[in-house]
Amino acid sequence: MKVLIVLFALGVLLQCQAKQLSRCELVRELRKHGFPENKMRDWVCLVENESSRRTDIVSRPNGDGSRDYGLFQINDRYWCSNTGQPGKDCNVTCKQLLSDDISKAAACAKKIYQRHGFDAWYGWKNKCRGKPLPDISSCKK
């Protein structure tokens, strides 16, 4: 019974480390990490549709068995390693993509964008492309 209580407490503690950003908090973080202003609304739309602005999201398995991690829902098939060692194309562990410090996730998302554009993300393709993008005019520069 004590083991269950400890595991429950640990689970609650780990959940408390997760963060859901407001829209303007997301914009501030993206600006801080050098995302271009002319694509900011696309990035906000992508994040809102992929992870609901949450840093701790891990997707259910995709059709190929892979999973998507973090704010940008970065796939472990190509981009992050599920071992304890950083690896794959972004040279990060998938766990690092779940951090409230989005530095590694942001760098990886930019790398993916450089190679594939926004089309790498189904959330953007299905919910943002050619559609009205989120209003970020109230988010101060």
UniProtKB/TrEMBL annotation:
Listed PROSITE patterns: GLYCOSYL_HYDROL_F22_1, GLYCOSYL_HYDROL_F22_2
Signal peptide extent: 1-18
Family to which the UniProt record says this protein belongs: Belongs to the glycosyl hydrolase 22 family.
Lineage, highest ranks first: Eukaryota, Metazoa, Ecdysozoa, Arthropoda, Hexapoda
Name of the protein in question: Lysozyme
Catalytic activity: Hydrolysis of (1->4)-beta-linkages between N-acetylmuramic acid and N-acetyl-D-glucosamine residues in a peptidoglycan and between N-acetyl-D-glucosamine residues in chitodextrins
Alphabetic keyword roster: Antimicrobial, Bacteriolytic enzyme, Disulfide bond, Glycosidase, Hydrolase, Signal
GO molecular function: lysozyme activity
